[in-house]
Write a structure and sequence with these properties.
Structural class of chain A: alpha/beta
CATH architecture of chain B: 3-Layer(aba) Sandwich
Structural class of chain B: alpha/beta
Distance between the termini of chain B: 21 Å
Helix content of chain A: 40-55%
Shape of chain B: globular
CATH class of the largest domain in chain A: Alpha Beta
Strand order of the largest sheet of chain A: 3-2-4-5-7-6-12
Strand content of chain B: 5-15%
Number of helices of chain B: 11
Strand content of chain A: 15-25%
Order of helices and strands of chain B: HHHHEHHEHEEEHHEHEH
Number of domains of chain A: 2
Shape of chain A: globular
CATH superfamily of chain B: Thiamin diphosphate (ThDP)-binding fold, Pyr/PP domains
CATH architecture of the largest domain in chain A: 3-Layer(aba) Sandwich
Number of helices of chain A: 13
Largest interface: A-B, 29 and 34 residues
Strand order of the largest sheet of chain B: 1-2-3-7-6
Oligomer: heterodimer
CATH topology of chain B: Rossmann fold
Order of helices and strands of chain A: EHEHHEHEHHEHEHEEEEHEEHEHEHH
Helix content of chain B: 40-55%
CATH topology of the largest domain in chain A: Rossmann fold
Number of strands of chain B: 7
Largest sheet of chain A: 7 strands, mixed
Distance between the termini of chain A: 27 Å
Chain lengths: ~300, ~300
Amino acid sequence: MENKKIATRESYGKALAELGKKHEDLVVLDADLAEATKTGIFKEAFPERHIDCGIAECNMVGIAAGLATTGKVPFASSFAMFAAGRAFEQVRNSVGYPHLNVKIAATHAGISVGEDGATHQCNEDIALMRTIPGMVVINPSDDVEARAAVEAAYEHEGPVYLRFGRLAVPVINDRPDYKFEIGKGVVLRDGKDLTIVATGLCVSEALKAAEALAAEGVDAAVINIHTIKPIDEELLCEYAKKTGKVVTVEEHSIIGGLGGAVCEALSEKCPVPVKRIGIRDCFGESGPAAELIHKYGIDAEGITAQIKEWL
Amino acid sequence: MPWVKSNRRRKGVFKMNTLELKKTANEIRKGILTSVHAAKAGHPGGSLSSTEILTWLYFEEMNIDPKDPRKADRDRFVLSKGHSAPGYYSALAERGFFPKEDLLTLRHTGSHLQGHPNMNDTPGVDMTSGSLGQGISAAVGMALSAKLSNDSYRVYALLGDGEIEEGQVWEASMFAGFHKLDNLVVIVDNNNLQIDGPVSEVCSPYPIDKKFEAFNFHVIDVADGNDMEQVAAAFKAAREVKGMPVAIIAHTTKGKGVSFMENQVGWHGKAPNDEQYAQGMKELEAIGEKLEKESGADGK
């Protein structure tokens, strides 16, 4: 099957422009990256509610906090490296601690940033953001989910971190019964031998890997965890018990991200062996996104090979 | 505690008003000393240096209602130098946002008076602060919000002179100047001392006025930021400024009002022991008595 491909940052910009029609309190902040983060799409529709803060991410997060105290609902955007990395302490102290209704919407997460290289490839943002008490962390897998996530983030009262990608990824959730609920994992494929838990662009790769494994007689379930915090412990435990083995797959460091979150949940509630697939405690590098995804072992081929080796 | 209604100023009874404000400031200083002593920790120095500024803001300048701390059209205040929380809390208590007895719980486990202000804990606190450089950005966000919605409230942010070494202060200032946020007043409590010594010797931010001017602020210099008349004049002048944000640079004395704390860097973040507390309170009582005499004379 060949799906059409859309980058989730594109979905983000379009969803903002849609939501802006309905909600006058929605404002969008950017830090000189409106073209790249796609908040420019919102800017075109609502120029008076799009505020470019210039290259000053820490201040942008503070301004978002101030706006939120007065009842506005700000979406503050930059690349993940700067929104979650550079401005981490501002997000923690000015947004998280007062539990303000600010949405940090980060694009260009992970190694699929591609050619810009390691300085711009943030593989640590999920880990950083999920340590902040009260922060919701969402990493959508495709266009459909990204749009739904933006709307859910708006409706949610409190801070939300949204993670979007630069690379166009296959649309996999385009079905009439698709429903997005913060904190609810989605079973995309049932199986009995092991469970692959994936997030973001790795979900479609995990589905392909499950097909490859099936061809070799391994029956793998695939769960899409779009919300890393709060994580769907119930669903994870159900499948851990059912399949006895869990593999996590993410475009993020294996330290502290989805793999970390799943291990934390399972080790306390229903311990089973877990294999973490992701960026293995190293920095990225320059190169075309697809090549990097392959090189770092988070495409279908890499996932399949690592699972077979582990089993 | 005598509370001076703002309309007195409009009726022209300013002399009396100033005296009562001075007495109020002295009461706030007692609250600072008492709370920090009870906490056995906290920041008296910068609280005492900014007392006149807070007194003016909470008893004259701002449109606020202690009975409705979150009313939508209120003026906003952000204590960007969040470590001066004892001064902030004492002013809020004096103004009636919560009982003055609460000051004795400062920094105690379970108290609503955290070491640094948290908007969800303390009535009257508009923004959580304490990590330096961040409060001014939130204040800028509030001022921007008023502009976006055509609201008429004003926003005030109090910064330390050491705090302005933080780069974020200048990110925020660049934004405020560029967006011509004339509903924003930034006050720098220029007491010239930070933890490691005089700000002029640690990593000097001087000239402070020229920096804010360069970021398109209207700058008002206050020669003595512990002089109520001078503070009053500065805030009145700030109201007249249109088309740009205002920075009030208030030259103050760290530890003001308690002789052994004045201009002593050691009192930045240290609590007085019982003996020092008694001594400090005695000095403040004496100031209070002097002010009472002045107001008595003025009444006749």
